[in-house]
Amino acid sequence: MFNLFYNKAFYLLIFIFFISGCAGYAGKVSEMRTALSVGDKETAIKKVNEALKVKEDDQYPDKLNSEKTLLINERGTIKQSVDKFQSSALDFRVADQNMELTDIKNDTVGSISKWIFSGSAGVYRAPPYEKMLLSTLNMLNYLSVGNLEDARVEARRLDITEHSLADENKESDKALLGIGDYLSGFTFEMSGRYEQALQKYAEASQNNNYLSLNKLIPQLANCTSYRDELIDSIIEANPKSVEDGANPGCSAGSDKTGSLLVVTSSGLAPYKRANRLPIGAAVVLAGAFLTPVQLNQANDFAVKGLLKWVNFPDLVQSSPQFTKVSVSVDGTPVNIELGENVSLLVKNYWEQIKGKLIAAAIVRMIARAVAGAGTNQAIKSASGDSGLGLLAQVLVEGAMTVADTPDTRTWNTLPAAFFLSRVELPAGEHNIKIDFFGNGKTVSVNKKIKITSGGFTVIPVHTMR
């Protein structure tokens, strides 16, 4: 009888360690990432559809869970990069309705352990930058098709998210996203809502040093009497931002020119990869977040060999194929500035929450070790067979490890960085050229646009590799 148990246990053990190597969400999007790495965006969309188990690009699963919501975000970003703006906007709207937001750095290890009993089994709670970038990218969709009404809706959603995060984090008056506030300012400016535009541009300038706003904010200030300390300080710091030192009055909405805004992006932001972290290293990284009792338990189980590693994801930065971008209009180069370093946002937030997440994982591993040790003792006492008890302990620990696949869920298709180019152009047709350089290669994107008097044109171009 015991031989039969040992045989079954042996095969079960092999099965456990086989499936415990599953890469989770990272494995589901690996083919998508491979397609993007060679510039095959249509295949990347197909791979996302396969993961969603849908046949059409605008089709959705009957039931949406955390993972499928994240996959819809991936698809929406790729659609935007191939100019499918309406379809992308639909994906982002669906995802926004199902995306939960949390700021883990302000949470406790205990509460994290409760809502993430298993690393990849819990509800995916989007980090703040993902929630803010969702509204930002959808605002970009609507601006690209000239839909100011829905762009304003996304600008307000972004503002609500920023204020909500500020309420959670008392160390800051407001959580700001430079690229999002810049696009919000542009949206309100093009809508003729100059007070709101001035507010958002000032907030964007506060978060990132946009040189283009040093001139634009004083000019726009002539269109409204609204002022605050931040706006006044920008105006005072740039007294010669208006040509010839003259006050031209409100020059917004010229009847001879229109505004062109080119939003480019390169590379992909860091993503998560499944890994096993040795318990010694895990305790060092998470020790500050563990109670003395938990710390003693972890060290005790580690010494006894009952706790060997913690399932935990690594954050991996892809090497971008293109490291420089240029924009020209009718053959003349135009200024380009950094809109947002998304990779830095991802890394900084990860460093802030990593210790608490490792601590929560250690707490779960302690529970496994306790269960395994208890099973060992119970079977040993009942059967007198210490080998049988040890094998049962390993099986219990292994089975519980399977339930704790490292959580590799993250928005994989976020760009590594955004860049902005804004220029006022005479009404009429213009040729736009965007060049991406890197690794001895150049990829060019050419656009022919028509600028209308007092109107605007927004062009997003994403390499995604």
Q: What would you note in describing this structure?
A:
This protein starts with a helix and ends with a strand. With 465 residues, the protein is α+β, with helices and mostly antiparallel strands. The protein is 52% helix and 18% strand. The radius of gyration is 26 Å and the shape is globular. It has 17 helices and 12 strands.
List strands and helices in order, with pairings.
Elements: H1 2-19, H2 25-28, H3 30-37, H4 41-52, H5 66-81, H6 85-98, E1 100-101, H7 109-115, E2 125-126, H8 128-144, H9 148-168, H10 178-190, H11 194-207, H12 211-221, H13 229-237, E3 257-266, E4 271-278, H14 279-286, H15 292-303, E5 309-316, E6 324-329, E7 332-334, E8 337-341, H16 342-383, H17 386-402, E9 417-426, E10 428-438, E11 441-451, E12 456-462
Parallel strand pairs: 1-2, 3-12
Antiparallel strand pairs: 3-9, 4-5, 6-7, 6-10, 8-9, 10-11
